[in-house]
Hints:
Elements: E1 9-15, H1 18-28, E2 32-37, E3 41-46, E4 51-57, E5 77-79, H2 84-93, E6 97-98, E7 102-104, E8 107-113, E9 119-122
Parallel strand pairs: 1-4, 5-9
Antiparallel strand pairs: 2-3, 3-4, 6-8, 7-8, 8-9
Amino acid sequence: MSKTLFYGVGIFVPVSDLKRSTEWYTNLLGFEITHNDEPNAMVTMMNDEKIVFCLVRSYDIKQQPFPRNEYSVEQYFNFHTTDVDNVHRILRQKGANVGDIVDFDGMRGFSLIDPDGNRYGVV
């Protein structure tokens, strides 16, 4: 496989309360703050800076449901882990809004919803 033109991805996440969301993404998920543009935005990263989440203070947030499909997808992004059960247990203990673990197409996973209703999967 040839090398791609890109080295990472930046995801803009609308949040109503920047402080609360920054705490959720850092304390609950373990992201690191890489740039502070308070009061309007906070940039956080996963692991090795290849995936960056820019939390953007937003107004009138309306979550767009994933379109109806035959693939059982209900969210735009998944977090990948090697231990779904342990991550589910840890996030639940920390008070995260997590769904039940389900089996689908040879995978296991659950939903994870941030304080503003931004929905992720964990598989």
